[in-house]
Write a structure and sequence with these properties.
Elements (H helix, E strand, L loop, with lengths): L5 E10 L2 E11 L4 E5 L6 H9 L6 E6 L2 E2 L8 H8 L2 E4 L13 H12 L5 H11 L4 H4 L8 H14 L4 E5 L7 H18 L2 E6 L2 H7 L2 E6 L2 E7 H6 L4 H8 L8 H18 L1
Parallel strand pairs: 3-8, 3-9, 6-7, 7-8
Antiparallel strand pairs: 1-2, 1-4, 4-5, 9-10
Helix pairs in contact: 3-4, 3-6, 4-6, 10-11
């Protein structure tokens, strides 16, 4: 059996009295793609931030290639760089990872100098931009001179420049037009096939999950309520909350009143079980 590239086991995180992540566990195979699905407040983004190291878990562990990632702040430059090469994150808003004062090519060069000082930086920058469908014109541009889709491509290129084992994408196409979403998702699928990188997609969009993931976990109130192969879970959901998410997607026969009633019934049933 192939060892998981990413193993999340028993993660717990609370903010005061509010439990944001409650005993969350899953694995991702090398080159695999996992969707983490849920509505706002489900705990999916907090889980992602723990995996990357932007939040510290109260309990549980995150392992990459069998090595546990430390919970506390990293000590030493070499250790921090090594952890960065394990997992990288692509955010919904690419401006979070782009300096508005620095041209794209220069920003990529800085990352390469930090993580791969012996590389031929100009050729690697050109290669990274080519990977994400950009070229010399974009290399000399400032972030504000690029479209939203181009900026998200740059954010992917910056993450790839580190050469991580796992890429975590937190609602990475949610703010893009539908046609641009499709381009970015196709790009990510191609990169996965070419580079063998593993993905964790954090999203509320079941269409994204269906397109680009092999496995899916569904989160509600900080806990996983359903998991399995993506096609199986979406075709025959076992949990009422997963069914509710599927029924909430607008389409033929969509009935907002019935969905609202189902949502209230689910909440009432959960209160009764408590």
């Amino acid at each position: 059996m192939t060892e998981a590239v990413l193993e999340v086991s028993g993660l717990r995180k609370a903010f005061g009295a509010q439990v944001a992540v409650d005993d969350v566990s899953f694995t991702v195979a090398p080159g695999g793609s996992l969707g983490v699905v849920g509505e706002s407040g489900s705990g999916k983004t907090t889980t992602a931030r723990i995996i990357v190291g932007l939040e510290h878990a109260d309990g549980g562990a995150v392992r990459v290639d069998g090595r546990e990632r430390p919970r506390g702040p990293g000590r030493g430059r070499a250790g921090r760089l090594a952890r960065a090469r394990q997992v990288q994150m692509v955010f919904q808003d690419p401006f979070l990872s782009l300096d508005p004062r620095i041209p794209i090519g220069a920003a990529l060069t800085e990352i390469l100098r930090l993580h791969h000082p012996a590389r031929d930086h100009p050729s690697r920058v050109a290669e990274l931009l080519d990977h994400v469908g950009l070229g010399a014109r974009e290399a000399s541009a400032l972030p504000r001179n690029l479209s939203g889709g181009q900026r998200q491509r740059v954010a992917v290129a910056k993450a790839l420049a580190v050469e991580p084992r796992v890429l975590v994408l937190d609602e990475a196409v949610a703010a893009l037009d539908v046609s641009v979403q499709a381009q970015i998702l196709n790009l990510l699928a191609d990169l996965r096939a070419e580079l063998g990188i593993a993905y964790v997609f954090i999203t509320h969009d079941l269409g994204v999950v269906r397109c680009v993931t092999d496995e899916v976990v569904v989160m509600r109130h900080g806990a996983i309520v359903e998991r399995g192969p993506t096609e199986s879970v979406l075709a025959e959901p076992a949990h009422s909350y997963t069914r509710l998410l599927l029924e909430s997607v607008p389409g033929p026969g969509w009935d907002p009143r019935a969905i609202s009633a189902a949502r209230r019934a689910l909440a009432d049933a959960e209160l009764t079980r408590r």
